[in-house]
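Reply to dn_fold:

You asked what the input looked like. This is it:
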Amino acid sequence: MKNYLAGALFLILSGCATYAGLNFEKLFGPEEVQERIVAHDFSQARYFEEQVQPVLDKRCVVCHACYDAPCQLKLTSPEGIDRGASKALVYQGARLRATAPTRLYEDAVSTGEWREHGFYPVLNERLQRADANIEAGVMAQLLIQKQQYPLPQDTILDDDDFDFSLDRSFFCPTSDNVHSYMEENPLWGMPYGLPALANDEQQILLGWLRQGATMSAPVPLSDDMVKRIDKWESYLNQDSLKQQISSRYIYEHLFLSHFYFSDVEEKQFFNLVRSSTPPDEPVKRIATRRPYEDPGVDRVYYRLIPEPETIVDKTHMPFALNDQRMQKWKEWFVDADYKVEKLPSYEAHVASNPILRSRYSSAFTLQISVR
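and this is what came back:
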């Protein structure tokens, strides 16, 4: 009897919410990208870092961390959260032509640009008011749904209720249809197929969402860390042809790595990226589909930038930087007895084939092979 009444109440509320969902623009105004990121020393920023992000890291990023996360929703950083979700699949076996990549931090640099790429918000972007932030927020609604309809008490979940197959269809609700999604799939609250958040975790996230989901800007690097980065960028961006070809080789093989300074006790990770701007200027990242493709500029600079996302094991490839590493690279690639008279081409048939002698000089290739 109790379950029947609860179900009836849910349907009534869902019906009202569905009706309201059709009028969100009338109730709360049009959607507009919000400024949610504040300086790291603001109290709201500290709350996000100390209370909210740990809950997301503990319960959410296990699914929402990678390039092909469900609905492309990445909850590993403020920029990923604010970007939101997309109905487009990253990997599509039936697709005959390549689609435009949607890599966070690379293929667009602002939430507004991501909206032009088809991403939609999971946070409320209408009137910034407590009730609107919950009613018109996809993330808030799916968290509430899980509390209202927790997992069945079965040891093994029913295949008719949950699909965990690799080729399953994804349902990516927007604020306009999230209530109908909840009505049709009452057990599909978030986290999907997993236990609901603990009550204190739920209250932290809902309280944060209710107040407008303010997030923190990155913490500035320490002076010591800036000096270390300057030292490595100075090495990687010397003008000699030997150094340019060496740095290109290093980047093309280690672009997926997370770099860290092994002599620093507190580990902070960095990405090596190609930039059209030299050291001492803001990084202007060069985004290409593959690391060896034509950068479209006369001179490429290799820059170290802080990794902005939560580190997860499935994408974590740590690589240590230290004086010994730099000395070895100098000995192998720069001080070795060979000449580089011309930099290799970025033409596809050359750049994509590491065996072609025209890509790197024969002497350089020999130096690499014997190591």
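DSSP finds 14 helices and six strands in the chain.
Hope that clears it up.
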